[in-house]
Fold this protein.
Amino acid sequence: MRFTRIQLRNWKNFQNIDIKVGPRVFLIGPNACGKSNFLDAIRFLRDLVLPGGGLRSACDARGGVSKIRCLSARGSSRLSIKVEMLIGDNEWSYQLEFTQEPYGKRRPVLKKEIVQRNGERILLRPDKYDDKDLVRLSQTYLEQISANADFREVADAFEKISYLHLVPQVVRGSKDLNVQSPAFQTYGHGLLERMASANKTTRRARFRRIEKALQTTVPQLTNLSIERDDRGVPHLNAKYEHWRPHGANQTEEQFSDGTLRLIGLLWALQDGEGPLLMEEPELSLHEAVVQHLPQLIYRALIMKRRTPRQVVISTHNATLLMDEGIGPEEVAAFYPMKEGTKIQLVNEIPHIRALMQENITAGNAAIPSTDPKDAHQLAFALD
């Protein structure tokens, strides 16, 4: 599955946006412009269909409907997300509109749910059953196995969405953290358990590829593996070669932040089937490594796979966008306005498109257009 179009209305930073997306998308823009919130809107769809999830759970995990609603919303209290996607040979669209109860528990209330396949509408809510029992509007049909039989492909596709924003401290502290916390799971909790639980043959093959990649960046690190301690807690292990003939064994506790993030990235590129959302993959990595990440990601997810995976990447880093293979239709620029953030593909911005057509990279052509206009004053802020 891959998304082809995403529309958001009254959603966090966005009063009304409509963007077409391809197999690979880079999100650029200043701090607090909504890049993470855009990725989170896609994750919201996944949270609707996860076991134990659903509309209310997805909203509660984000602080409730009022925390999701755009501060610039005018005229309507409804939030809306609509996505168009390709699943196999079929074109699907899913639209959800909701608000919250005016009093009491202020639970989310569904206002519209529409599913279409190849232009044919196969679900429209509220329906006659909802009219008889308004409590039904606290749940989507998407999240109900008994109700989504005609479009279960959509639910299955949403469940395969994955997100990577690995925080090394969370990975290292997995044994001490609350396993049930969605935030910790989002930022790397459970990564080592997923590695340890993978099929043995699959895990060995992935680790061989990861070790080969590490040889280009951390050549002293060899013999990567994962083992459980006496309590059953999984730990990454590797040999760190130095002047002594047998080297030294290290676990994730001793790995640098950059090494641990790179291992997590390399694992994520081999694990899963659906769209992969990546938050600033360049963090903690050397610039010489960062400039090759787009090619690595492209080859791993699109070029070398029988079934390509879509990838959406947020970044501030110009080096990441120095790859000449990145086209203007792959870069979405975020511009914060008083009435909410605007998003444009840079191939729709004439002067940036013209620069990139002259073989100027997106890092040089597009990133400067999103610089905060008063950033040069920061050096004098504390005078």
